[in-house]
């Protein structure tokens, strides 16, 4: 058994350890990118469904419409717990900032849908509000995939 923390690490063992750590970081970033893409696309799809379909057609499906964002959230929470970030403090800070911005923009989009665009319910304009909270998700994908 080799001493991986000692000073007498053989070059081939060191190279394999570096490769293993690099692969783990790449895997973490791939999971982050896929989860942020899922959040962004599902947010746009949710607002398109809620904004584009008139309220009279939504009434029978209201519990299902309410349950969908919670389901996506818990699935992504499970994915993040099973694949924690290993890229360091920078990715964790980015994730926290983007999560806060996403939450604020999501509340803003819901308020816009319910208070400002209520007369336009069932039109394309009401569906476009889902793009607003999805922007931080796509920015996070772009920022992480750049590295």
Overall description:
This protein has 147 residues and is mainly α. The radius of gyration is 21 Å and the shape is elongated. The protein has helices at residues 11-52, 55-58, 62-82, 89-116, 124-127, 131-146. Helices cover 78% and strands 0% of the residues. It has one domain (11-146).
List the helices and strands and how they pair.
Blueprint: H1 11-52, H2 55-58, H3 62-82, H4 89-116, H5 124-127, H6 131-146
Helix pairs in contact: 1-3, 1-6, 4-6
In short:
The protein is mainly alpha-helical. It has helices at 11-52, 55-58, 62-82, 89-116, 124-127, 131-146.
Major sheet: none
Low-confidence stretches: none
Range of helix content: over 70%
- Termini, distance in Å? 34 Å
Mean pLDDT: 77
Features:
single chain; 147 residues; mainly alpha; transmembrane; membrane; transmembrane helix
